[in-house]
């Protein structure tokens, strides 16, 4: 059934409020307009974040990761995020050039709560700023300077439901299609999947930064 023909479709804020009820006091008060010291501790403990952006061509959400503290809390209204080597699609960066609004969600291994940050990003190639993020002798291409609008922690229910950090929830890589298998299928074998898989570990190790 097309979404427009669904008689149960929610189409107004009033319907949404009636469905879910009032926001709890704790849920409302945990949101602040700066990086509180407790929120700073979570950011500095996180080795992984999802960066969400929006632009004329659509939405993007992509992973960012490095050792814990890779996102630097410059002050209680500013975060710094290095842009490491990737696939050169630069979907996030193209969006930011056209619309600075961003959102981040930080994950910490073993911890149920996550942290959400909303703000506006600018892309900087300032040499002294980039030099602060050298890893394995490699400089990032640029650094995102994120002006913080709101910050709040997300409760652990989603992590508990997903069992994300449970050892018995970990999947073996060979239980899913390999990257080479997917690329071969998506390109009608124009990309040699077996060769891609064979070369991938060494290529990733040599181009990590």
Task: Describe what this molecule looks like in 3D.
The chain is α+β, with helices and mostly antiparallel strands. It has 2 domains: 24-162, Roll (Pnp Oxidase, Chain A); 171-206, no CATH class. It has 8 helices and 7 strands. The chain has helices at 13-20, 25-29, 37-45, 91-98, 127-130, 157-162, 179-186, 193-206, and strands spanning 48-55, 58-65, 72-75, 78-83, 101-107, 114-124, 142-154. The chain has a 7-stranded antiparallel β-sheet, covered by helices on one side. The N and C termini lie far apart (47 Å). The mean pLDDT is 96. It comes from Piscinibacter terrae. InterPro entries: Pyridox_Oxase_FMN-dep (IPR024029), Pyridox_Oxase_N (IPR011576), Split_barrel_FMN-bd (IPR012349). This is Pyridoxamine 5'-phosphate oxidase family protein.
């Amino acid at each position: 059934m097309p979404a427009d023909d669904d008689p149960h479709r929610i189409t107004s804020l009033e319907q949404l409020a009636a469905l879910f009820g009032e926001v709890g006091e704790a849920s409302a008060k945990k949101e602040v307009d700066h990086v509180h010291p407790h929120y700073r501790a979570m950011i500095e403990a996180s080795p992984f974040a999802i960066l969400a952006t929006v632009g004329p061509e659509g939405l993007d959400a992509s992973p960012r990761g490095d050792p814990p503290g890779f996102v630097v809390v410059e002050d209680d209204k500013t975060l710094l995020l290095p842009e490491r080597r990737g696939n050169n699609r630069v979907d996030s960066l193209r969006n930011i050039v056209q619309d600075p609004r961003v959102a981040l969600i930080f994950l910490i291994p073993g911890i149920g709560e996550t942290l959400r940050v909303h703000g506006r990003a600018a892309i900087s190639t300032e040499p002294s700023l980039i030099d602060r993020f050298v890893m394995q002798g490699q400089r990032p291409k640029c650094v995102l300077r994120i002006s913080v609008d709101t910050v709040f922690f997300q409760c652990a229910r989603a992590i508990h439901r997903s069992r994300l950090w449970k050892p018995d929830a970990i999947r073996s890589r060979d239980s899913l299609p390999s990257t080479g298998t997917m690329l071969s299928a998506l390109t009608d074998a124009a990309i040699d999947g077996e060769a891609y898989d064979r070369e991938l570990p060494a290529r990733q190790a040599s181009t990590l930064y």
